[in-house]
Amino acid sequence: MFAIFKRELRSYFTSLVGYVVIGVMLAFTGLYYSANCLVYGTSDFSTVLYSTTLVMLFLLPALTMRSFADERRNKTDQLLLTSPVSVWGIVLGKFFAMAAVFALPCAVDAVMIFILWALGGTVSALLANLAGLLCYFLLGCAAIALCEFLSGLTENQIIAAVAGFSALLLAYLMPSLRSMFNAGSAVA
User: Fold this and answer.
1) Dihedrals φ, ψ of 157, to 5°?
2) According to DSSP H, which parts of the chain are helical?
3) What is the pLDDT of residues 23-61, one digit of tens each?
4) With contact defined as beta carbons under 8 Å apart, do 52 and 33 qualify?
5) Residue whose C-alpha is closest to residue 61's, from 172, 178, 165
6) What are the two backbone dihedrals, phi and then psi, of residue 68, each rounded to the nearest 5 degrees?
7) Given a cut of 60, is residue 186 above it in pLDDT?
8) Region class of 154: left (phi > 0), else alpha (psi between -120 and 50), else beta
9) How many C-beta atoms surround the C-beta of residue 132 within 10 A?
10) Which of 114, 99, 137 lies closest to 43, judged by CA?
């Protein structure tokens, strides 16, 4: 599993995919951080995380689209499946590599949270912001798992990215869709 992890992590940084995902995530986080926290003087980092959730819906399918779809298209999945690593090891190695790429912008977000604390935030605000960042990271890991599953269903990377974005957008809009279809609402 560790060999799969190293190979996948190296592949994200030999191509531009890892750099683009990290750069775009940090650009939007920095923009919302400076606009919401520094300009208005609030120590609530959850507004920054909520604002960048929509950006995450676009970037994580782009990160995961090639995980299994590219292996199938290049016919290297047979080589991978005959390696001495179990199927769970292959899946978890790829998942942990994608989660590590996503963890890098989250680590920079933690630095931003500590800067807010150093500028006069309270300890309770620091703990609430760190808990929000943990929830954001776990949400990203769940999105990575879903998109990795959808990448395993097809051999076309574009179809994997569109399917991942569609599934994540549907999950993101689920509360709004649920309120549209309440049992007690009737159109007269």
Assistant:
1) -65, -35
2) 2-14, 17-32, 46-51, 53-64, 69-73, 77-81, 87-118, 123-152, 157-180
3) 999 999 999 999 988 888 888 899 999 999 999 999 999
4) no
5) 165
6) -110, -25
7) no
8) beta
9) 19
10) 114
CA 71 to CA 133: how far, in whole Å?
A: 32
Interatomic CA distance for residues 188 and 176, integer angstroms:
21
Cβ neighbour number for residue 82 with a 10 Å cutoff: 8
N- to C-terminal Cα separation, the chain: 59
What's the pTM value of the predicted model, to 2 decimals?
0.90
d(CA 112, CA 36): 12
- pLDDT tens string 54-92: 999 999 999 999 888 888 888 888 888 888 889 899 999
Dihedral sign, Cα of residue 52, residue 28, residue 96, residue 153: positive
Residue 169 class from Cβ within 10 Å (0-12 exposed, 13-18 middle, 19+ buried)?
middle
Distance CA(93)–CA(76), nearest Å, equals: 16
Beta-carbon count within 10 A of 71 CB: 20
Q: Is 118 helix (H, G, I), strand (E, B) or coil?
A: helix
The 8-class DSSP code of residue 181 comes to T
- What burial class does residue 68 get, using C-beta atoms within 10 Å of its C-beta: 0-12 exposed, 13-18 middle, 19+ buried? buried
